[in-house]
């Protein structure tokens, strides 16, 4: 009977020529779940950990709703057990030669290869993503990631000399991220010698399976531990002793909350937030190909979030027609079907989009798509302004066949990744990350490795949490200053005022603070800067920034060198200013000399930045650009008043940043002396120096939404406040947590760490072919 | 819909198409066009992996693919005997018992046409007549495959083939004109081919492997359609690069754009290098995805192939019997 049915169907299909189901058997995924009696646990220290009395969450097939297994929700003690395992494993793992770690990663890649069917059916079954997407893209990429990072581990002693692994890394994944996001981050962490605890949302068994595969390699249990639990366990994970860094992938608001919660905690925080992408379609584009890019970015299962679509007005109608035509042909369905474009996730986004389109059309309004927001632009310049006028800075694609236009847009977009005439390409060798509110955590490429490294000899991070720090009042009030005796200043007297916009200005508060010398005598009055002065300084810096960025590195270098010469010319003035603060003459001379040398060294380094990556599958290069952060605020340490000032300033300027500095609180005079030289040498507004109460100025800078990065060298409390306040615009911050730094040492005063922090990476993909 | 109506509609459309399309050569349709090769390559890769058909669907699709085949022999050693055998195979492409088993034996399944060199047209017409078949005979022409002969002889070649009874003419374009950007001259030549064909269908071979870039492929497609081609065809099968997916995507997009501009549906014929049943399925799904179901008829889609048919028959054999066929189980073509 079945046979005749089949015959009839063939006859029917011969006429209709429709698609049929192409089901992928998921028997092996179910069989694997059966090995755990459909009750998953955590995978810790190379073993399944199934604690009693935990709330369990069902893991469901998103399409049928069928209950596949149950997952326990972790509690604090499970987190502690996992961290303990990772910490124990770290002692062994981090000490291994890179070659041994490389071997392990290669073995794990082979392990994935051997069990790939299980992996892809399981992933597709529980996430509902199209199986083709997982099978043809995710699994091969996971293997490539392991292999590429194995090579990095192998050459680590040579290429990453001077850096050491941080320690235990916590990784928190939100439910919308696939297991691939985990691979992107655990690969570099494991490669450089860190061990990992991954906190995955309950109901996502693929990371557990990967941990099991890694654990079954035997030799190093505990380097990869996976626990199920809500993201709210994040702070608990971060506060475990030994956890040195927490990387969070998830929504922007969650990231903000976590940033505030973890202020002052031991672990550093890396944020990779949101997954929205941008697509700029110009009139010089291959519109059909661009439409494919839109479809991929918005409705395929490889898309992780929403899409903002900017279309040049002249091709708006044409694009919309093609887009609608293309969308009508998309097939949705069960993820495990081999002939669908969209699994559950893509289909849901698509349905939602269509519903809104219908509603909008019936109301005669413009189409407000929840996942794809399309808006027209007139010129490429306008497109840049519109694209950059958002708080997001993840990824973007530019569609234009005109090379000049494409490059102009590619360089101008303030995002982490730009694809020219392509969308969503990824490769282990190419760093991926973002800027602005998309977070400044990186994965892939060299930048991904540095995420889990610190300069050798850096002490482990310990919590410096001050429970009674009141964020609302920290640095709010400025102490009053009254006249306190005659000034016995240097001769000629140091300039008075705040150095803003290239000249000395009176402070907005019209009051001053006194600076005492080492003997307790009043040395000088300096201007008392406040919120308005910070506002002015940041504005001035923003005005100067575009001009400085467009300067070629050579021009930057020569200005820094000129500044160094000026410093040397006035060596006696600087040494005497330093001497008055109790610095010995010899040391003072060294400090001035070193400061000049730092300016020269960074000037020279300005020339060599960024490089070219050659990606195997891609014909054409990927440019790894190092772009300035924008307006960088620096609160200098009290110690080494000239050297620290010059070192930080030089690194910042060499990388193209415009700067607002708060000089040493106890000894601001040398910095103000430098300003005298800068007034004649540097473009106005490029460097702004504001003296005053450090806590107050720090507060103003940290809360300023238009300050793009902040370096703070001061008290532990100040550091904690800076971390807390940075949640506002999610600016990257670098704080010392009250620890002094050896500014006169090459590694700490002028090491590669400064260079890494002074610029951000952008990957520019340039596929070629005609 | 009754089949007689279909036939009527078919003729009606085709009679009128020539006149409708006798438009001017509008170079603005090709002047702004941009084709990004890497992006098209990615799409081509995707589309092959995205659509699979299995089981009954596969069998039905393969049978359908048979009806799109221009069964071809274009060899120097063609004689009337092997052309005759080819014509027989065109009339009976799949073993009768296999068709019965699939209950499609009453569908009159044949290939779409037989395609031969001009000198063999008479043989083919005679053989098909003897077999009582109305399968059209297609002839290549215009100095196939290089097209490097005088325009006068190329035109004469078309006329002679039509006289001999060919109802479809596969002409090759003059690549020199494309590579030197003489689009109007190319248009004029194809217009003359069109005229020389009379009532016969004109299939224009672009020889895409020799056009240099995908942008040129798009432009040549558009010019060929503006000049009145009924089909545009990828390649002669004699170039080093034949029917590839990226090229097809570009040509199909041109066909769709032309349809949007004029309302005329132009056919598409990939040829060369399509040998396996699996390939043919991918081509069917490509048409379905890029142009839609309306293009999946022999009037608008052909596959130029010689060995493809035997592989399809082999797959059908396997589908019906569950066994892989021995070489001698299936008649040769």
UniProtKB/TrEMBL annotation, chain A:
<comment type="subunit">
    <text>Interacts with SPG21.</text>
</comment>
<dbReference type="InterPro" id="IPR016162">
    <property type="entry name" value="Ald_DH_N"/>
</dbReference>
<protein>
    <recommendedName>
        <fullName>Aldehyde dehydrogenase family 16 member A1</fullName>
    </recommendedName>
</protein>
<dbReference type="InterPro" id="IPR016163">
    <property type="entry name" value="Ald_DH_C"/>
</dbReference>
<dbReference type="InterPro" id="IPR011408">
    <property type="entry name" value="Aldehyde_DH"/>
</dbReference>
<feature type="domain" description="Aldehyde dehydrogenase">
    <location>
        <begin position="512"/>
        <end position="736"/>
    </location>
</feature>
<dbReference type="InterPro" id="IPR016161">
    <property type="entry name" value="Ald_DH/histidinol_DH"/>
</dbReference>
<feature type="domain" description="Aldehyde dehydrogenase">
    <location>
        <begin position="370"/>
        <end position="454"/>
    </location>
</feature>
<dbReference type="InterPro" id="IPR015590">
    <property type="entry name" value="Aldehyde_DH_dom"/>
</dbReference>
<feature type="domain" description="Aldehyde dehydrogenase">
    <location>
        <begin position="48"/>
        <end position="367"/>
    </location>
</feature>
<comment type="similarity">
    <text>Belongs to the aldehyde dehydrogenase family.</text>
</comment>
<dbReference type="Pfam" id="PF00171">
    <property type="entry name" value="Aldedh"/>
</dbReference>
From TrEMBL, chain B:
<comment type="pathway">
    <text>Carbohydrate degradation; 2-deoxy-D-ribose 1-phosphate degradation; D-glyceraldehyde 3-phosphate and acetaldehyde from 2-deoxy-alpha-D-ribose 1-phosphate: step 2/2.</text>
</comment>
<dbReference type="InterPro" id="IPR002915">
    <property type="entry name" value="DeoC/FbaB/LacD_aldolase"/>
</dbReference>
<protein>
    <recommendedName>
        <fullName>deoxyribose-phosphate aldolase</fullName>
        <ecNumber>4.1.2.4</ecNumber>
    </recommendedName>
</protein>
<dbReference type="InterPro" id="IPR011343">
    <property type="entry name" value="DeoC"/>
</dbReference>
<dbReference type="InterPro" id="IPR013785">
    <property type="entry name" value="Aldolase_TIM"/>
</dbReference>
<comment type="similarity">
    <text>Belongs to the DeoC/FbaB aldolase family. DeoC type 2 subfamily.</text>
</comment>
<dbReference type="Pfam" id="PF01791">
    <property type="entry name" value="DeoC"/>
</dbReference>
<keyword id="KW-0456">Lyase</keyword>
<keyword id="KW-0704">Schiff base</keyword>
């Amino acid at each position: 009977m079945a046979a005749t049915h089949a015959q009839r169907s063939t006859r029917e299909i011969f006429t209709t020529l429709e698609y049929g189901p192409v089901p992928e058997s998921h028997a092996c995924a179910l069989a694997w779940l059966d090995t755990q009696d459909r009750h998953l646990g955590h995978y810790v220290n190379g073993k399944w950990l199934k604690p009693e009395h935990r709330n369990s969450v069902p893991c469901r097939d998103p399409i049928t709703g069928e209950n596949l297994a149950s997952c326990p929700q972790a509690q604090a003690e499970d987190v502690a057990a996992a961290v303990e395992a990772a910490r124990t494993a770290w002692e062994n793992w981090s000490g291994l030669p890179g070659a041994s770690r490389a071997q392990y990663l290669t073995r794990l890649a082979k392990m994935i290869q051997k069990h790939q069917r299980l992996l892809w059916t399981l992933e597709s079954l529980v996430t509902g993503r199209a199986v083709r997407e997982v099978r043809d893209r995710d699994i091969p990429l996971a293997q490539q990631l392991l292999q590429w990072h194995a090579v990095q581990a192998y050459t680590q002693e040579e290429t990453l000399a001077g850096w050491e692994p941080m320690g235990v890394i916590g990784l928190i994944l939100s439910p919308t991220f696939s297991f691939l996001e985990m691979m992107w981050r655990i690969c570099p962490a494991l490669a450089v010698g860190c061990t990992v605890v991954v906190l995955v949302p309950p109901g996502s068994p693929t990371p557990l399976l990967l941990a099991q595969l890694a654990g079954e390699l035997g030799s190093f249990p505990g380097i990869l531990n996976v626990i199920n639990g809500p993201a709210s366990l994040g702070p608990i994970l971060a506060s475990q002793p030994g956890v040195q860094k927490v990387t969070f992938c998830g929504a922007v608001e969650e990231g903000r909350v976590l940033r505030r919660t973890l202020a002052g905690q031991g672990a550093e925080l890396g944020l990779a937030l949101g997954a929205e992408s941008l697509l700029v379609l110009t009139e010089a584009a291959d519109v059909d190909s661009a439409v494919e890019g839109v479809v991929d970015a918005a409705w395929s299962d490889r898309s992780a979030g929403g899409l903002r679509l900017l279309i040049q007005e002249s091709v708006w109608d044409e694009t919309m027609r093609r887009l609608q035509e293309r969308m009508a042909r998309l097939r949705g369905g069960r993820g495990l079907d081999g002939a669908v474009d969209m699994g559950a996730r893509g289909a849901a986004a698509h349905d939602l989009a269509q519903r809104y389109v219908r509603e909008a059309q019936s109301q005669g309004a413009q189409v407000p798509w929840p996942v794809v927001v399309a808006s027209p632009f007139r010129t490429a310049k306008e497109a840049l302004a519109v694209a950059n006028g958002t708080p997001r800075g993840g990824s973007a694609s530019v569609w234009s066949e005109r090379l000049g236009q494409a490059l102009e847009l590619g360089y101008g977009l303030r995002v982490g990744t730009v694809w020219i005439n392509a969308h969503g390409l990824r490769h282990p060798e190419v760093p991926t990350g973002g800027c602005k509110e998309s977070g400044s955590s990186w994965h892939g490429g060299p930048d991904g490795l540095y995420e889990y490294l610190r300069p050798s000899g850096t002490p482990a991070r310990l919590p410096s949490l001050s429970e009674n720090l009141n964020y609302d009042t920290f640095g709010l009030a400025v102490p009053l200053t009254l006249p306190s005796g005659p000034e016995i200043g240097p001769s000629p007297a140091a300039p008075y005022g705040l150095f803003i916009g290239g000249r000395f200005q009176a402070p907005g508060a019209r009051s001053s603070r006194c600076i005492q010398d080492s003997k307790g005598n009043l040395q000088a009055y300096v201007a008392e800067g406040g919120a308005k002065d910070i506002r002015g300084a940041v504005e001035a810096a923003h005005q100067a920034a575009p001009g400085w960025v467009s300067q070629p590195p050579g021009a930057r270098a020569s200005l820094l060198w000129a500044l160094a010469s000026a410093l040397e010319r006035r060596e006696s003035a600087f040494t005497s200013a330093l001497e008055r603060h109790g610095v010995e003459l010899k040391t003072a001379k060294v400090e001035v000399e070193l400061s000049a040398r730092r300016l020269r060294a960074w000037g020279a380094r300005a020339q060599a930045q960024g490089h070219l990556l050659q990606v195997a599958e891609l014909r054409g290069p990927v440019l790894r650009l190092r772009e300035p952060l924008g307006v960088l605020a620096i609160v200098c340490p009290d110690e080494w008043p000239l050297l620290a000032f010059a070192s930080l300033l030089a690194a910042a300027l060499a990388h193209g940043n415009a700067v607002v500095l708060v000089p040493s609180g106890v000894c601001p005079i040398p910095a103000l002396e430098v300003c005298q030289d800068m007034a004649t040498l540097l473009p106005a507004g490029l460097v702004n120096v504001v003296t005053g109460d450090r806590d107050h100025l720090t507060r103003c800078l940290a809360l300023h939404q238009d300050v793009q990065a902040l370096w703070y060298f001061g008290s532990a409390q100040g550091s904690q406040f800076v971390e807390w306040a940075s949640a506002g615009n999610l600016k990257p911050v670098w704080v010392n947590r009250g620890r002094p730094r050896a500014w006169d040492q090459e590694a700490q005063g002028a090491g590669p760490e400064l260079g890494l922090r002074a610029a951000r990476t952008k990957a520019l993909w340039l596929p070629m072919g005609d | 819909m009754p089949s007689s109506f279909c036939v009527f509609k078919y003729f009606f459309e085709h009679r009128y198409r020539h006149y409708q399309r006798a438009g001017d050569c509008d170079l603005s349709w090709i002047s702004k066009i941009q084709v990004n090769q890497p992006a098209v390559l990615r799409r081509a890769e995707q589309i092959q992996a995205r659509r699979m058909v299995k089981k009954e669907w596969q069998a039905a699709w393969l049978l359908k693919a048979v009806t799109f085949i221009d069964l071809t022999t274009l060899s120097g050693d063609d004689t009337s005997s092997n052309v005759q055998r080819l014509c027989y195979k065109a009339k009976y492409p799949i073993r009768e018992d296999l068709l019965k088993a699939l209950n499609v034996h009453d569908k009159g399944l044949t290939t779409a046409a037989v395609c031969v060199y001009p000198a063999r047209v008479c043989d083919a017409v005679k053989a098909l007549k003897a077999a009582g078949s109305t399968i059209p005979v297609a002839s290549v022409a215009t100095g196939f495959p290089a097209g490097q002969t005088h325009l006068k002889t190329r035109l004469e070649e078309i006329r002679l083939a039509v006289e001999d009874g060919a109802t479809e003419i596969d002409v090759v374009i003059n690549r020199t004109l494309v590579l030197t950007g003489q689009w109007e001259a190319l248009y004029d030549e194809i217009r003359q081919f069109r005229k020389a064909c009379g009532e016969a269908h004109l299939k224009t071979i672009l020889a895409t492997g020799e056009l240099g870039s995908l942008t040129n492929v798009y432009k040549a497609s558009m010019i060929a359609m503006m000049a009145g081609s009924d089909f545009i065809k990828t390649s002669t099968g004699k170039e080093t690069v034949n029917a590839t997916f990226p090229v097809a995507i570009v040509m199909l997009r041109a066909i769709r754009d032309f349809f949007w501009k004029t309302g005329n549906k132009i056919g598409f014929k990939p040829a060369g290098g399509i040998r396996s049943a699996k390939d043919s399925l991918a081509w069917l799904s490509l048409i379905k995805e890029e142009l839609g179901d309306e293009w999946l008829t022999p009037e608008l889609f052909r596959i130029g192939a010689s060995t493809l048919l035997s592989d399809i028959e082999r797959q059908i054999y396997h589908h019906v019997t569950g066994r892989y066929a021995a070489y001698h189980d299936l008649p040769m073509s």
